[in-house]
Write a structure and sequence with these properties.
The complex is a heterodimer of chains A (303) and B (508). Chain A is α/β, with parallel strands linked by helices. Helix content of chain A is 25%, strand content 30%. Chain A has helices spanning 20-32, 39-47, 137-144, 149-153, 166-175, 191-195, 234-244, 260-273; strands at residues 7-14, 54-61, 64-77, 84-89, 102-105, 113-115, 131-133, 160-164, 177-182, 185-190, 208-212, 228-232, 248-254, 277-279, 292-298. The longest helix of chain A is centred in the last third of the chain and has 14 residues, at 260-273. The mean pLDDT of chain A is 82. With 508 residues, chain B is α/β, with parallel strands linked by helices. Chain B has helices spanning 4-16, 27-42, 50-68, 80-97, 102-117, 122-130, 149-157, 168-171, 191-195, 253-261, 306-309, 335-343, 347-368, 370-379, 387-394, 404-413, 420-451, 454-460; strands at 18-24, 139-143, 163-167, 177-182, 199-207, 231-233, 272-280, 284-289, 295-299, 310-314, 323-329, 462-466, 474-491, 499-500. In chain B, the strands form two sheets. In chain B, strands 7, 8, 9, 10, 11, 12, 13 and 14 form an eight-stranded antiparallel sheet that branches. Chain B has a six-stranded parallel sheet with strand order 3-2-4-5-1-6. In chain B, a hairpin with a 3-residue loop joins β7 (272-280) and β8. The two termini of chain B are 30 Å apart. The chains are: A alpha/beta (303), B alpha/beta (508).
Chain lengths: 303, 508
């Protein structure tokens, strides 16, 4: 992992801004999704949790995906199937000792189970129906190339934030349709299914957020830092970079933007004045001719 | 938002863009260029004289028009006749004031005559020569300023359906072209036109002594994949960077003012007001009154809180990039219909009484003359009796004087002394209604602004605010692009009306 003070600035100059930020966000979310964890590895990790750990799990209920909370009790053999499983408590124990429904989860059922981050102890209800969430699982699995998509989506995380015009992002995310054609079929969805911006009808399991570039710096002072900030446009960068920068920052500059020259000038002066930055001279992908790219890194080492 | 297909076409243009320079000779125009250089050197020490500075500006602007608008030299767009008259009039003044310039002026008369007698505009000819070869392509002829578009378009578009004549704002609107023809040096266009091209082949046709080359300056210092500079062909070796003409994209303040004020028939009862001409986003213009403490509603996006962003500011303090809020639909001033709603049933009578004494005062000024009225008011003991204040009191926008004693003196002057108290009470009532309406208007605007996306306002430079009240109409916030250095005398009915350059009628 990168140390906290590590800063990467990716400056991208494009002929027109449309879709660049949202596709960058989709790429960032994919890059940050934990890869390579098999079902068994995930199960083993859960088995090692201390008893009483708050959990979230996503399951299908009446044809819909729902999100529920639970408490990890112990690792135990399934009483009928005689297979290793974990026991999760789903409902509260009543004062008269009744209730307290618990359920065994086999390894393959654990893909939707994850630790509830930031919650010391979950408060369980008497009866749990769960919150309906909107997940286009096959499409997301295909894009993220993950087996246990549900475990990633079980918790809200602000991995990435888009800084710019909310309405533009919303339109691009919700109306841009993508389709993957694989050997076993065709999977389709929208960019929002992948980027999962908070508040844009993704139910829960959001992975990113939008910060309007019109907001003032003071409003961001107590804001939780995201792993990646994407500044869409010169104004967003010029106004909010000091307050909203993250360990990794992507600055998208539209060459037809009125403030483009000013933003380039500021990035260039940062590049010239900061001795601690090192510059990447190549990237492992081809950059289109219409795009100009400069990557500066300070401190830490590559992930 | 552009569709993916449009975005794809724009990227394609950026990847394949190639600029080609075509340098043309125009000896008569070069003579004018050399004359301007020499004249500017000669009059260096006389530039404090507004006559000299203004004359030099006019000649530079004339040269700029010839370079930027590809038209036959006799075309009325160039206003050659007016330039000739100006030269003669300047010659008659300078003959006595600056006899040292006599030779220069005589030379200029010869040069102007030579230019008028030129049968062909070499830039125009160059375009006409190439047009048949460009039959199958979608072509944009991009002029450095939109005023020339309406003059050039009929000559080209009627004959060639595949060609559109447009300004640089036109070519940045999302459409892409196989070819774009630029009729002025690259530096006369915004950087964005070449930084983010909307065409594959670009032809810059320019006179051969002005440096025409585009120098992409907005580049990262250490880019991974090199620069996005377009490939170029052609040469501009002969160019000596001698660009003495006023780049035609610079605002021709006096030209715009002149063309707008030439529209007669609306000034019968209008008062002349000192006004600043302001260039707004979207090639819009407005005259804003600039006398004393004249103010305009503004939005300053750089302020921290939204309440601070909206404020009335002195017209004399306006700066580029501030946004001014102007009424663009439903009459000139929303305040009056709102105040009338506050007045309710009393509105009609109150307005009638007010109108009646204003009319009498105007008639008095017309019959006696402003100075005589001022003198009379001074005799009545009005401390603030000045011609400027008198003009203000005759305006419909002013409601009453500050002090009752001054008001009474005005009423005495127009023969309404016995009604002075009643009329004062009436004016006070209107004034109060205007204040209530003003506060309400500001609150409504603040409500709209709270919801507004300022990033979008800053990006587009223009935003509409519509009020859901009877007669609410529309207010528009415009970014101020430039402010005229000179003050113009304008009829008061043209103040605060937004108009487009080249518009012959007022948008009301």
């Amino acid at each position: 992992m990168r140390p906290d003070d590590a800063k990467t600035l990716v400056a991208v100059s494009v002929p027109v801004r449309d879709y660049v930020a949202v596709f960058s966000a989709a790429g960032s979310i994919k890059a940050l999704a934990k890869k390579g964890e098999t079902i068994q590895e995930h199960f083993n990790k859960l088995c090692e949790l201390p008893s009483g750990t708050s959990l979230i799990y996503i399951a299908k209920s009446k044809g819909k995906m729902v999100k529920k909370t639970g408490i990890f009790l112990e690792k135990k053999m399934h009483p009928y199937l005689q297979k290793p499983a974990i026991l999760i408590q789903l409902e509260k124990i009543q004062s008269n000792g009744s209730g307290g429904l618990s359920k065994y989860f086999l390894p393959e059922e654990c893909t939707g189970v994850s630790v509830a981050e930031g919650q010391a102890s979950a408060k369980l209800p008497k009866k749990q129906i769960g919150r309906t969430i909107d997940i286009n699982t096959p499409f997301i699995s295909c894009f993220w190339d993950l087996n246990n998509v549900e475990s990633v989506l079980a918790s809200n995380k602000e991995k990435c934030r888009l800084i710019g015009i909310r309405n533009q992002f919303a339109e691009e995310l919700q109306t841009t349709k993508l389709r993957f054609r694989l050997d076993d079929g065709t999977y389709s969805g929208t960019l929002q299914d992948i980027v999962r911006v908070r508040g844009l009808s993704c139910g829960c399991g959001y992975q990113s957020d939008i910060i309007p570039s019109s907001c003032i710096q003071e409003e961001l002072e107590n804001d939780k830092m995201a792993r990646i900030s994407i500044f869409d446009g010169a104004k967003a960068y010029l106004r909010l970079f000091p307050a909203a920068s993250s360990p990794v920052n992507i600055v998208i500059l539209d060459r037809s933007d009125r403030s483009y020259g000013e933003a380039v000038e500021q990035i260039n002066s940062l590049a010239i004045s900061e001795a601690n930055y090192r510059y990447l001279s190549e990237v492992p992908f081809s950059v289109p001719q219409a795009v100009s790219l400069m990557i500066m890194e300070r401190g830490g080492s590559d992930e | 938002m552009n569709s993916i297909e449009v975005v794809d076409r724009i990227y394609n243009c950026s990847e394949r863009c190639r600029l080609c320079y075509h340098l043309v000779e125009w000896p008569e125009l070069k003579k004018l260029s050399l004359w301007i250089r020499d004249f500017a050197r000669c009059v260096k020490e006389y530039l404090d004289d507004p006559e000299v500075g203004s004359f030099l500006r006019e000649i530079k602007s004339y040269g700029g028009k010839l370079v930027a608008a590809p038209l036959p030299p006799s075309h009325p767009f160039y206003e050659a006749e007016r330039v000739r008259c100006l030269t003669k009039s300047f010659a008659s003044v300078s003959r006595y004031a600056y006899p040292v310039l006599n030779k220069n002026i005589a030379d200029l008369i010869g040069i102007l005559q030579g230019l008028e007698e030129t049968s062909e505009n070499p830039i125009f000819q160059n375009i006409l020569r190439e047009l048949p070869a460009w039959k199958t392509e979608r072509i944009a002829i991009v002029l450095a300023n939109r005023r020339a578009v309406s003059a050039v378009a009929p000559l080209i578009e009627d004959r060639y359906k595949n060609i559109s004549v447009m300004s640089e704002t036109g070519i940045m609107r999302g459409e892409t072209f196989d070819r774009a023809v630029f009729t002025a040096p690259a530096s006369w266009y915004s950087d964005a036109v070449f930084d983010s091209p909307r065409f594959i082949g670009g032809d810059i046709i320019c006179v051969n002594w002005i440096r025409s080359k585009w120098q992409g300056k907005n580049q990262f210092v250490r880019p991974i994949n090199g620069c996005f500079l377009s490939e170029t062909c052609g040469e501009d070796e002969k160019a000596d960077d001698e660009d003495v003409f006023t780049a035609y994209r610079a605002v021709d303040w006096s030209g715009i003012s002149r063309s707008m004020l030439s529209n007669e028939g609306k000034e019968k009862h209008a008062q002349m007001v000192a006004a600043t001409l302001v260039c707004l986003e979207g090639d819009n213009y407005v005259f804003l009154e600039n006398e004393g403490n004249s103010k305009v509603l503004s939005i300053d996006c750089s302020r921290k809180s939204r309440a601070e962003m909206v404020q009335k500011m002195l017209v004399s303090d306006l700066k580029p990039d501030i946004h001014v809020v102007l009424r663009t639909e439903g009459g000139s001033d929303l305040l009056i219909p709102l105040a009338d709603r506050v007045l309710g049933e009393r509105a009609l009578d109150a307005r009638h009484l007010q109108k009646e004494w204003k009319m009498r005062l105007r008639n008095k000024v017309a019959s006696m003359g402003a100075q005589a009225v001022v003198d009379q008011l001074k005799l009545y003991g009005v401390k603030h009796a000045t011609s400027q204040n008198l003009r203000y009191w005759t305006l419909d926008t002013s409601i009453r004087t500050k002090e009752y004693s001054s008001f009474e003196a005005l009423m005495t002057l127009i023969g309404h002394r016995e009604d002075a108290a009643a009329l004062w009470e009436n004016a006070r009532m209107i004034d109060q209604a205007h204040r209530v309406a003003g506060r309400y208007l500001r609150l409504m605007l603040l409500e709209q602004i709270k919801k507004a996306d300022f990033e979008e306002l800053e990006r587009t430079g223009q935003m509409d605010f519509t009020f859901q009240v009877e007669g609410g109409g529309r207010l528009t916030a415009f970014r101020v692009k430039a402010i005229s250095p000179d003050i113009f005398e304008v009829p008061d009915n043209r103040i605060s009306h937004v108009f487009e350059e080249g518009e012959s009628t007022w948008r009301e």
